[in-house]
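Weekly puzzle thread! Below is a chain. First person to post its structure in token form gets bragging rights.
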Amino acid sequence: MVEVYTSSVINASADRIWAVVRDFNALPAWHPAIAESRIEGGAPPDQVGCVRAFRLKDGGSLREQLLALSDYDYSCTYSILESPMGVENYIATLKLTPITDGNRTFAEWSAEFECAAGRENELIDSIGRGVFQGGFDALNERFHN
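Winning reply:
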């Protein structure tokens, strides 16, 4: 099992950030790599079990399923159903923790998956830096005062 973990401090309250990221269909609104997204079957975007189909700006398409959503813990967990990345059994969690010293948030995004031997480092880098850190950087920019 391959593990990826990325963390960041975002200069906004967890409530403000969560209001943006809790919507499972809102990736195009805050992540710079996402071109468009839709929830299949018209399900609500915060319904556990809903599936989002989205297209990356580079043309790739993915389908992900929401496995857990907690407004109390500011966290969501999802799996990849289909992707061009060559990963299997991919489960990821995005979690926010309020920082009590200032109006900031500790953000964590982690994933576990399986992949073909020899691709681990490439995928850890592209997911950790490209997807996870790219999202955190965009959120920091969005909330920059």
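Puzzle host: Confirmed. Bonus trivia for everyone else. The CA atoms of residues 86 and 119 lie 9 Å apart.
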